[in-house]
């Protein structure tokens, strides 16, 4: 299979997966079964982005289960699994701005590690994905290495691009007006680049 046919497979795979999720009609299951027999050997990353509480994790888990039923293994990771730990965020707060002590915004994730793992995954290398315990605010474990060829990466800012400098001149909310009047925090968040 060429790269183009692999991406065609992925588009069809996602299309029929979502059809099954939304309609639960057996005709879509048959299409998925047929596609599962044609799964390319290359690796694919599927990004799911949405606001907090919008159902990203639920959709990812549901797709993973559906695909497993079709004999197609996948891994699911969250951008949240790559949070910096409190001591690291406190150091950023000391260096740059107090708001970096809180996790969540761009700049509070270990993106270097995540990107290196994503590149290795695309090369076909089995990965142990990091897991973060938000309740304890620390890294909790690493998954067992898997040979899955599909990866779902979900997170609230997955695929979000940095803003133009001109867009940073006006505060967006009261938090920024009160705690970041000089736009130091917002500029630093923006310098974290594309997610």
Describe the structure.
This protein is α/β, with parallel strands linked by helices. The protein has a single domain (43-191), classed as Rossmann fold, CATH 3.40.50. The chain has helices spanning 3-23, 26-36, 56-69, 86-95, 111-122, 174-179, 184-191; strands spanning 44-49, 74-78, 130-133, 138-142, 150-155. A 3-stranded parallel sheet has the order 1-5-2, sandwiched between helices. Strands 3-4 form a two-stranded antiparallel ribbon. Helix 1 runs antiparallel to helix 2 (26-36).
Give the CA-CA distance, first to last residue: 30 Å
Mean pLDDT: 89
State the helical fraction. Answer: 40-55%
- What portion of the residues fall into strands of 2 or more residues? 5-15%
Radius of gyration: 19 Å
User: Under CATH, the topology is which?
Assistant: Rossmann fold
List keywords for this structure.
195 residues, alpha/beta, Rossmann fold, 13% strand
Short description:
This protein has one domain: Rossmann fold, CATH 3.40.50.
List the helices and strands and how they pair.
Elements: H1 3-23, H2 26-36, E1 44-49, H3 56-69, E2 74-78, H4 86-95, H5 111-122, E3 130-133, E4 138-142, E5 150-155, H6 174-179, H7 184-191
Parallel strand pairs: 1-5, 2-5
Antiparallel strand pairs: 3-4
Helix pairs in contact: 1-2
């Amino acid at each position: 299979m060429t790269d183009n046919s692999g991406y065609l497979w992925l588009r069809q795979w996602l299309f029929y997966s979502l059809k099954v999720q939304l309609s639960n009609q057996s005709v879509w299951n048959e299409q998925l079964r047929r596609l599962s027999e044609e799964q390319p050997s290359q690796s694919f990353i599927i990004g799911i982005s949405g606001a907090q509480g919008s159902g990203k994790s639920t959709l990812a888990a549901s797709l993973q289960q559906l695909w497993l039923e079709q004999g197609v293994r996948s891994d699911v990771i969250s951008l949240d699994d790559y949070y910096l730990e409190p001591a690291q965020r406190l150091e950023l707060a000391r260096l740059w701005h107090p708001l970096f002590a809180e996790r969540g915004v761009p700049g509070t994730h270990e993106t270097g590690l995540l990107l290196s793992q994503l590149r290795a995954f695309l090369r076909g290398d089995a990965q142990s994905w990091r897991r973060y315990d938000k309740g304890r605010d620390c890294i909790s474990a690493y998954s067992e290495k898997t040979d899955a060829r599909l990866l779902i990466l979900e997170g609230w800012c997955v695929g979000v691009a940095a803003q133009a400098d001109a867009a940073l001149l006006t505060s967006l909310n009261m938090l920024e007006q009160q705690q970041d009047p000089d736009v130091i925090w917002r500029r630093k968040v923006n310098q974290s680049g594309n997610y």
